[in-house]
Amino acid sequence: MLSLLDLRARIEAGTLTPAGAIDLCRAAIAAREPELRALVAMDEAAAIPEAGPLAGIAVGVKDIIDSAGLPTQMGSSIYEGWRPRGDAAVVARLKRLGAVALAKTTTTAFASSDPTGTVNPHDPGHTPGGSSAGSAAAVGAGLLPLALGTQTAGSVIRPASYCGCAAVKPSFRLIPTVGVKTYSWALDTVGLFAAGVADVAHALALVTGRPEIDRAEAASAPRIGLVRQDFAEPPEPEAESALMRARRAAERAGARVTDLALPPELAQAWERHRFIQNYEGRLALAWEYDAHRDALPPRVREHLDVGDGISPAEYDDARRHGHHARRVLKGVFADYDAILTFSAPGPAPATLAFTGDPRFNQLWTLMGVPCVNVPVPGDRLPVGVQVIGRFGDDGRALAVARMIEYALRS
Amino acid sequence: MLSLLDLRARIEAGTLTPAGAIDLCRAAIAAREPELRALVAMDEAAAIPEAGPLAGIAVGVKDIIDSAGLPTQMGSSIYEGWRPRGDAAVVARLKRLGAVALAKTTTTAFASSDPTGTVNPHDPGHTPGGSSAGSAAAVGAGLLPLALGTQTAGSVIRPASYCGCAAVKPSFRLIPTVGVKTYSWALDTVGLFAAGVADVAHALALVTGRPEIDRAEAASAPRIGLVRQDFAEPPEPEAESALMRARRAAERAGARVTDLALPPELAQAWERHRFIQNYEGRLALAWEYDAHRDALPPRVREHLDVGDGISPAEYDDARRHGHHARRVLKGVFADYDAILTFSAPGPAPATLAFTGDPRFNQLWTLMGVPCVNVPVPGDRLPVGVQVIGRFGDDGRALAVARMIEYALRS
Questions:
Q1: B87 contacts A283? CB cut-off 8 A
Q2: Pairwise CA distance, residues A137 & A392, whole Å
Q3: For the complex shown, is ipTM > 0.90?
């Protein structure tokens, strides 16, 4: 993979120019993209800033995120050839930092669950996950040092786990969603993919203008709650094994890891995530559903059909459960610096017809808390673990994740 | 003014066709629009549904709200000729109900405070208010029975007060903002303008699919807290007089009106509203600010310059104050069914160079609570009063507003 921090260090040392760094990406894309199919469009004539803290960093932009000068097609024929006038807020911010929006990356239609043509960089017979398929695959394959995704259920953490890269789904609204196609305004969260946890932490600090995110350090003996999310179907052995390796690594690094059974309010909220996603999706995609229903692929259409049958009262009830569970979770974090849990049920499924199951991600998206995927080395196909912090404390979540990532490698 | 309920009653009685109702609007537009300058674009070939609970209802759509087939130009040369592909969620919903998106209405650039060319329907030397200038003026002048606006500070309730029509700024996110240009994601709220309170209540119930909003009734002796918002500069005599007339009308109708001094947390939140608006505006309009700064008119540019200087810590502090004040306000509503206060500091200022002061609106936008403008008859230039309900109880706020509106007329 291409490490953002490594590229930046070489640029700052004068051994690599920003244009040279972009050329590295172009060469990697030329070599691997024909098989990977992670990109929808490339900016062949992109201006390459010479200065800025992200100069020389090529970014992949999920194709539901507006980028001036490139099409934004939402993974759907309904938006074929569509070109927004301007950049999404996060893209404008990245450009201001010197980064280059080099490519649009594949997305399932409207960031739902109909698979893209992208394959897993570690085995082309396996899904890269979704919905941020192209961003995860492009970073995992070493095409790009940074990519943008979004998560409404599990669309950042799960594909990062499948593709073997680091990722952060930050606290809700820490990165603006302005210029990002909405599926669920209460859930949609912009996230970042990069090679390692330090790379995503550095990028998040710059994107948000909050340097403390990058400077945070884990406590000397952080209190980590190991959560199995027993409310969901159990994971596969590879995910359990990765969690155990991460636990032992954390303990070697000095963390105090204890099993944590979540209060029942969290399971109750988890069960209701889908009511919020489907109800709001039906409203958010009202034009597409009403005017172009036949052009919607089957899975998103089915989700919207389900959403069409949810009453405002059911939705309000789900929102109230989510609100209540957020307060309960705040109490849980009084005793823990971070939660350690599964990123996905197992390695990437051996199919291109299914993007995988977000059951270990939905709760945390609804809670709005920062989630980090830490790749766990060892298996043929990547598996990651998820480090979760309290709302608004993205720096600490990333610091604990970095500690575990480092300990796993040593 | 054209009453939505009156038009619908005539259509249901068979004495008016939907096409005939649209023709009434076209005739009114032909007569008054040359002077009023409330409209940016008209859909001359709009399809007119024969059926649906809003068949025959022509809607004005503020020009920051996407509408397929019509330009959406944000009141800014940066978006000249811009045509979104689809409808905003609220526009799609209105069309599904049978309404016709007949016209785009003027907006200050990006719904900020640089005046439009629209004049007040009651005196062309006076502002119609802003930012939803065209929607308020078009309804107040009787051009349209329904119009969409947005409020981030006071952009729905204030222009409604100035133009003499009813309006509702519903609970936060009760109407989706999907497809609406963002200024501040924590504040932007879609609202409705119509002739009377019953008209906006009926429209809101249909738009949200929540019939209980329209069926709610005020308690037999509702407890109303009269709030003067002493933290802001005092109002002009006309606004004070309108508030007193509304108070007496409410008491005649059986309400128990008592003076209510708000807890200090609410004044503290009010002082911080602008930090949220300016900080988020700077992020939301990052592309416009970075790539087209010279094309921004002076007031919005100045607001964004201010936003550029606000630190994340100041913003976080403002958000925390807002969050805390919302909980305090919830406690206040344990003892009151509604709050009655000023809609605006006075009648529309005698200028077209200033859209008026939102100081009596900002707090309530930040609180996310439903606000209703009730026109108060009597003065040469309209003045309204504001009825405010608890979060999520839009029906009760509208019921109390309807009660006061009725009592004011009798």
A1: no
A2: 28
A3: yes
